[in-house]
Amino acid sequence: MIAKQLDSNRLERTDGWGQVVHAVDYVYRPTTVAGIQDVLTLARDTGRSVGLRGGGISYGDASVNAENILLDLSRMTRILDWNPETGIIDVEAGVTMRDLWRYVVGDGWWPNVVPGTMFGTIGGSLAMNVHGKNHWQSGTIGDHTLEFDAVLPNGDCITCLPDETPDLFQSIISGVGLFAIVTRARLQLKRIYSGRLKTTSHTVPDLKSLLTLMDAQKDDSDYLVGWTDCFAKGDTLGRGQVDATVALAAGKDPLPTQTLRLAFQDVSDTIFGVIPKSILWRVARYATNNVGIAWLNRAKYWAGKLQHGKQALNSYAAANFMLDYVPHWKKAYLPGGLLQHQSFLPKATSEQAIREMLTLCQARGYPSYLGVIKRHPADDKYLLGYSLDGFSLAMDFRVTARNRAELLQLMYDLDDIVVAAGGRFYFAKDAHLRPESVSASLGAERMQTLIALKRQYDPANLLQTNLSRRLFGKQFQVQSKT
Ligand SMILES: Cc1cc2nc3c(=O)[nH]c(=O)nc-3n(C[C@H](O)[C@H](O)[C@H](O)COP(=O)(O)OP(=O)(O)OC[C@H]3O[C@@H](n4cnc5c(N)ncnc54)[C@H](O)[C@@H]3O)c2cc1C
Predict the structure, then answer these.
(1) Which of 70, 146, 317, 445 could anchor a disulfide with 186, C-beta 3.0 to 4.6 Å?
(2) Residue 63: CB within 6 Å of ligand 1?
(3) Which residue, by CA, sits nearest to atom 44 of ligand 1?
(4) Gap from CA of 299 to ligand 1 centroid (Å)
(5) What is the pLDDT of residues 231-275, one digit of tens each?
(6) Tell me, what's the pLDDT at 72?
(7) Closest CA to ligand 1's atom 14
(8) For residue range 196-224, what is the model confidence (pLDDT) as tens digits?
(9) Ligand 1 centroid to 440 CA: how many Å?
């Protein structure tokens, strides 16, 4: 049982992953359901709200709760049950994607959906309903969740199943931690017959070719990702590369027992066996500017041309979590950090909207340092779903004290392009969206359902974060205490 007043020793600085958002919160790290219920009671007794945090790797303010309580679930890390015959696993909410794949890969299983980094927790991944490079065909993590346990803001523990409790299932999943605290999840994993994936890289001269090729490849690929050089202009605007990846079918890997081993999956932490990758960000820091990144993009594009049509075999971990193998790369963006703009666009308007966004960034002098394009399926059933039958574009921008205001204006102008194109946004990556862009993209019906469900399950507005106050503050304020 914890004290009836807030302990100032619990005050900690918490950051969004992109290092743009910083807050000081009262951080509690329970390991049991009873511990979570105690924190909820403490919040009610002290008139504070409760924000949730898993791995804390959402880019912006989704897992910070300034001057209020932050319930950090990262110590709930037990694997509760594993059946290597069926591929069904029960885990606590603080188990990370890393813990998960490392536990099962040797038995020939892999999560159906993994995001681009392995450091998020299952609880945080459900709250954002994460997707991977196979989104258009495998859906989101919610689609592979058989059931989960959660603690409601009133302290009740519930079990949610997709068919028996659809409204709670579909709103806690995707609900950015606004409805309940997930404590346990049962996931269906997928069978794999090799620890390796085969990737074919194709270089494309412009945006139209990139989107057309991604569409053409989707029926024959298990994973698909496009990279675009955001500095390319004119006829070459949108040029880049498409990586189409397939899993090896049963019997195609001569040494599956070897390649499924952790030792095979783990990527070396040095380059050429000598240079530690942990120093790379220090070097990258000097190139993280318009001139350096423009040259790196050119080099990547021309190097890609040499690899055009060639195939490479990579481990599942290397293929899925490439960025994780450059430790601390985000530090190259310090001291100001990075803002990501990720938008989801319907297929019919994707090309025009992406063209407009890339051109606008260049015209303002802020070409994005990253350009990742993915293919997505039609609208899903989740409350705060972001999916659309079309493409997404993710762009990273370096924030400095001098460019902050201009960059923010650029983000708003990009949002307007997305809204006009009928697109959506992904809150896991967001640090800047305004309520009007969110309402416009989610639509009136979803917004009304969101508000109604929030009032039903959390009438005192106990569960909040900086993100929820920024995006939905006014709508939930009616019954808010804080
Ligand atoms: C380099 C990088 C690449 C990424 N690539 C992808 C990608 O390809 N696809 C993708 O979909 N995402 C991607 N992400 C985003 C990431 O997967 C999500 O932000 C995910 O939510 C992180 O999990 P977390 O445990 O760190 O969540 P946190 O950031 O800690 O929290 C995220 C949200 O979940 C809520 N929450 C946390 N724990 C719980 C719980 N137990 N119960 C209920 N709510 C909870 C929080 O309130 C918050 O709103 C990427 C992030 C990074 C940094």
Answers:
(1) 146
(2) yes
(3) 177
(4) 32
(5) 999 999 999 999 999 999 999 999 999 999 999 998 888 877 778
(6) 98
(7) 115
(8) 999 999 999 999 999 999 999 999 999 99
(9) 23
CA of 59 to the centre of ligand 1 (A): 8
Q: 116 alpha carbon to ligand 1 midpoint, in Å? A: 11
Handedness of CA 468, 470, 473, 475 (dihedral sign): negative
If you classify domain 196-432 with CATH, what class do you get? alpha beta
Confirm or reject: Cβ of 465 under 6 Å from ligand 1.
yes
Closest CA to 172 of 218, 208, 124: 124
Sketch the domain layout of the chain as residue ranges.
196-432
* b/e per residue 247-277 (b: at least 16 CB within 10 A): bbeeeebeebeebbeeebbeeeeeeeeeeeb
From atom 16 of ligand 1, which residue's Cα is the shortest distance away? 58
pLDDT, averaged in runs of 10, over the chain (482 residues): 81 98 98 98 97 98 98 98 98 98 98 98 98 98 98 98 96 98 98 98 98 97 98 98 97 96 90 82 91 96 94 96 90 96 98 98 98 95 96 98 97 98 98 97 96 96 97 72 45
d(CA 48, CA 388): 36
